[in-house]
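Example record

The entry below shows one chain as it appears in the dataset: sequence first, then structure tokens.
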Amino acid sequence: MPITCFIRYQIDPFQREAFREYAENWGRIIPRCGGHLLGYFLPHEGSNDIAWGLIAFPSLAAYETYRARLKTDAEGRANFALAQDKRFILREQRSFLEGVEGTLGLEAWT
């Protein structure tokens, strides 16, 4: 069963660009370690301190394999250290979701 790891970040709104750098780094790291990166999202309107990351996996077991690879990836460890050093992430929550068949990837009607 495919799953998506849905990560909600509370960020320091004054360090938005530091979070952007962190997210862009994951764009190289996550695919290399086995995750299908759906994207990172910064606040645009409304709340200015909530950001999101979405990563898909074929199964929970694939997620566990990804996490093990991530722990041994030098660039991944450096990116975690960047977040700890700059302290731009105030809180992080993870949820694992399954997509509802027939609702994903639908084109807009024109």
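Notes for this example: Residues 3-96 form a domain with the Alpha-Beta Plaits fold (CATH 3.30.70.100). The radius of gyration is 15 Å.
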